[in-house]
Records
---
Amino acid sequence: MSDVASTFRDQYGAEPDGLWAAPGRVNLIGEHTDYNDGFVLPFALPERVVAAASRADAGWRVWSDLEEEPASFDDPGEPGAVSGWAAYVAGVVWALRDAGYEVPPANLALTSDVPLGAGVSSSAALESAVLTALIDLGGLDIPVADRPAIAQRAENVYVGAPTGIMDQSASIRCQAGQALFLDCRSLEVEQIPFDVAAEGLAVLVVNSNAPHRHVDGEYGARRKSCEEAARLLGVPALRDVAADGLDETLERLDDHVMRRRVRHVVTENQRVLDTVELLRSGRIREIGPLMTSSHASMRDDFEITVPEVDVAVEAALMAGAYGARMTGGGFGGCVLALIDADRADATAAAVADAYAEHGFTAPTPFVAVPSQGATRL
Ligand code: GLA
């Protein structure tokens, strides 16, 4: 990660007023439940976006060490007016203003070590770092609990991606050593201790490096299907469908594909609740089977996995993982495996071997440590 303070000095000829950071995330369990008003359990990664920033006289100017050219805009305009990576920055300015806040003009320099296109929320990290910096620079009085919805509006309305509220919540509200149990309807959170190292465990993340296939269209299609199912079942959201008696409820839907979509969401919500129960009583190893059944549900019912992630999950389990699952929106991205800490290299090697056998591009493994959410450094 580059020294963003010195980039700032080089570009703007002055010291920044401060440095702000916001991380990427992995989701321990609870996939495609957020936009169904359900439950999620992400934790923040140590990989993060760092923003060096100062107030300016007018407009916004942003250097990113991932880009050749700076982005600058005098006004974010209407959604879509600024495009490319700068849309995430303009979107945050737009969303803050739309929520009634006076946003300070600013100069920014950004750096990031959050892997791009890996399904670990590099865009939410970018939005959250910029949002946190602008809030502090402007002295804006915005409770932490209200911030993720502002970053989410930047993504939904300005950038135009119909995502839920999990990623921005994770980037902003997670704490080191904890997983964030979030009720996506009430937006209430509970920090759940997730100190895997103390139990001799580790979470191995394997970036499947699968080429992203139709992610945007498929994500939107899943979301539509869930909303339509809720309408047909006469409930505000699939969160309101009880896990008890689910089979009878599903019979009220004619469409077999839709039945499977609903079954994923309802059983996944229950798996989040069961995982939280186990973690509250310190039984970390026992969440493994819930992770693995979450994966089966994403593969068979929600149909959002790809061969690369299925092979990675199988190989990790064969290598002795307590549980393994894809994390994130799907159609590629990362796999999580809960393993004994001393099995990280062996598990990563087992996945790499399985990939070689299938002729897939080699995966990228790393060990994930639950880390701090957005903060001023
Ligand atoms: C993406 C979205 C999230 C969530 C996940 C799936 O990461 O940004 O809002 O829907 O997919 O759980």
Note: Residues 31-32, 34-35, 163-164, 166-167, 328-329 surround alpha-D-galactopyranose (CB under 6 Å).
---
Amino acid sequence: MRTRVAIVGAGPAGLVLSHLLALQGIDSVVLEVRSREYVERRVRAGVLEQGSVDLLVGAGVGERLKREGMVHHGIELRFEGQGHRIPLSELTGGRAITVYGQQEVVKDLIRARLEAGGQISFEAGAVSLHDLETPAPAVRFEQGGTTHELRCDFVAGCDGFHGVCRDAVPAGGLTVFQKEYPFAWLGILAAAPPATAEIIYAYHERGFALHSMRSSQISRLYLQCRPDETLEAWPDDRIWGELQVRLGAGGGWSLTEGPILERGITTLRSFVVEPMQHGRLFLAGDAAHIVPPTGAKGMNLAIADVRVLAEALTRWYRTGEADLLEAYSATCLRRVWRAEHFSWWMTSMLHRWDGDEGIEHRLQLSQLRYVCGSKAAAMSLAENYVGLETV
Ligand code: FAD
Ligand code: PHB
């Protein structure tokens, strides 16, 4: 088997890359270890920055996104029993975010690629990468119990945090920067109409809570929990009880409850590798970096990386110039580090670090009051949240 660009992973990074390359007439093969049904059902992120929406719409895969995505012009921060609106659009010259589930983005892209005759091999897991320092690298993968080899000009490692591509870089080739947090998120998807029109981030003495949504009938909710907790410790009534208390702003507001359709626990981590490339291998998305989800940046960073990679590959195929490819890592890392900082900052401000009313608590409350009371501070949050054009 041979293709120009071998793409490992059919998440947002791999699928957007394959689509952008196809628009430039550059063929690729996407290898995905899971089934199509599995990746289309996997519930994850939900917030698209303006820049991500513009890219998807501009690339012709935004039709359903424009129809079903919910455009939000603000978010709410809740603490000390009160809600405070951050008017994102007012503070950013009219920019907005769109709430649209990651698996919907994935579904739209898979359909577009397959309808255009693009090649996505499901249940094909990459096991090893070869000859990355030569002009003809290869990906070995397993499908149907047999090992195959895909030769290519370039490998795009879009296989997420637990993939194999990052580990294919020889020892010493990458520097890892990472930080783990002493808490996790318990996330649920519920058949319950959202009790809010805009996303609510709540800081509460019992821990952080987040109220988001997927449609007028489906809520997406998260609770801070301990990283070693299991779902067995969280029966439905405990989840709803905690959400009611932590999100409750008083004044008659209450959360609408309903059947829980999906649930999971995600640990929180900040992680970056430098550089994001080695020879003919380019890492993109979660394969290269992880942010804690409090800033809603994970999927947006994945899309931003492959936009840079698609442009660099297009230039190489058109002119033979490798300058953009050589600059790939440095170009991406500027945005990545801005998002890492913003996500760390939001996480630090909104989660309970200790059980007592100590210094962290007072510092957090002071920061929250400042963000909600100062236009300059609110603007800084807003421009990062909707996504900076240049960083
Ligand atoms: P992924 O979406 O992880 O895609 C990688 C793909 O590669 C997967 O389909 C995987 O099956 C495939 N793959 C892995 N190994 C191989 C292999 N060897 N061969 C072939 N294919 C392989 N962000 C938020 O903003 N909010 C959230 O609530 C949120 N929740 C999350 C929950 C979880 C459990 C996880 C893991 C992430 C979450 N994120 C969240 C982050 C966000 O979803 C990611 O940043 C985003 O998915 C990154 O896209 P990606 O394409 O880089 O990686
Ligand atoms: C979501 O809707 O899943 C969501 C929203 C905001 C976040 C993280 C996740 O910060």
Note: Residues 8-14, 31-34, 39, 44-45, 102, 125-126, 158-160, 163-164, 187, 266, 285-286, 293, 296, 298-299, 302 surround flavin-adenine dinucleotide (ligand 1) (CB under 6 Å).
